[in-house]
Amino acid sequence: MKVILLGEIKGKGGEGDVVDVAQGYAENYLFPKKLAVAATKGNLKQLEERRNNIEKREAVRIADANALKESIDGKSVTVDAKVGDEGVLFGSVTASMVADAIKADLGVEVDRKRVELGKPIKVAGAHEVPVALYREIRATVTVLVGVTAEEAVEEPEAEETAEEAVAEVETEAAAE
């Protein structure tokens, strides 16, 4: 069934897009929530008349998303969590905790549904977390869990020295 979207729907499209969806999805979800209308001749004609306004709103949304990306991309936020032995957390860090940390540390409001965490963080350290801002515009935030920024910088160096030691042992074994 062809419908005209009245707002952004993740995985389907944005305002004014004509998409093909299952009839049950349209009738039971999109239409009652006023997220879409049927793509009839009359509705398509109205869409063409509103196309200019939709493009202006779309340009504003993209500009806002790019400005938000500039303000949070590459930054780091700290999430306080109780850390046990060997860096394992008591509990886990969720997307809503990351969104709250972004608001507290960077002063930027981000919807928790936009934080693409996948699985909750259960290990202390620095974790790269993508944030979907609008359609394909994404920013990456470093989430520090149970560590400070200085400790997070030191950790990769320790991993590199361990990797170098393994490489040295392998080259010595190959030489023999």
From TrEMBL:
Pfam families from the UniProt entry: Ribosomal_L9_C (PF03948), Ribosomal_L9_N (PF01281)
Region Disordered, annotated ranges: 152-176
InterPro entries: Ribosomal_bL9 (IPR000244), Ribosomal_bL9/RNase_H1_N (IPR009027), Ribosomal_bL9_bac/chp (IPR020594), Ribosomal_bL9_C (IPR020069), Ribosomal_bL9_C_sf (IPR036791), Ribosomal_bL9_N (IPR020070), Ribosomal_bL9_N_sf (IPR036935)
Keyword set, alphabetical order: Ribonucleoprotein, Ribosomal protein, RNA-binding, rRNA-binding
One GO biological process term: translation
Domain Ribosomal protein L9: 13-40
Keyword Heme listed: no
One Gene Ontology cellular component: ribonucleoprotein complex
Domain of life where this protein originates: Bacteria
GO molecular function, one term: rRNA binding
Family statement: Belongs to the bacterial ribosomal protein bL9 family.
HAMAP family named among the record's database cross-references: Ribosomal_bL9
Role description: Binds to the 23S rRNA.
Name assigned to this protein: Large ribosomal subunit protein bL9
Organism, scientific name: Collinsella acetigenes
